[in-house]
Design brief:
CATH topology of the domain at 1-22 and 31-54: Ribosomal Protein L9, domain 1
Shape: globular
Bound molecules: FE2/S2 (inorganic) cluster
Helix content: under 10%
Mean pLDDT: 97
Strand order of the largest sheet: 1-2-3
Distance between the termini: 30 Å
CATH architecture of the domain at 1-22 and 31-54: 3-Layer(aba) Sandwich
Strand content: 15-25%
Order of helices and strands: EEE
Length: 66
């Protein structure tokens, strides 16, 4: 199974597929098929998104064509 990572507009990073999410000490979080990772630093449940980005994050990642 492949892994897909999408940066949501004004929101979290969505990871879906086969992945191993580890903490700063290399310990794995419980295995899931998908995760929403906070990128606004406001979540009370880091590294996961808890919705606090709503109205507090303004960033839309875009692929630039050369
Ligand atoms: S991105 Fe959703 S709480 Fe930070």
């Amino acid at each position: 199974m492949s892994t897909e990572i999408q940066i949501f507009d004004n929101g979290p990073i969505h990871v879906k597929g086969d992945f191993d999410l580890k903490d700063g000490q290399g310990k794995s979080f419980p295995k899931k098929e998908e995760a929403y990772l906070c990128r606004c630093n406001l979540s009370s449940n880091k590294p996961f998104c808890d919705g606090q980005h709503e109205g507090n994050l303004s960033h839309c990642a875009r692929v630039e064509n050369a």
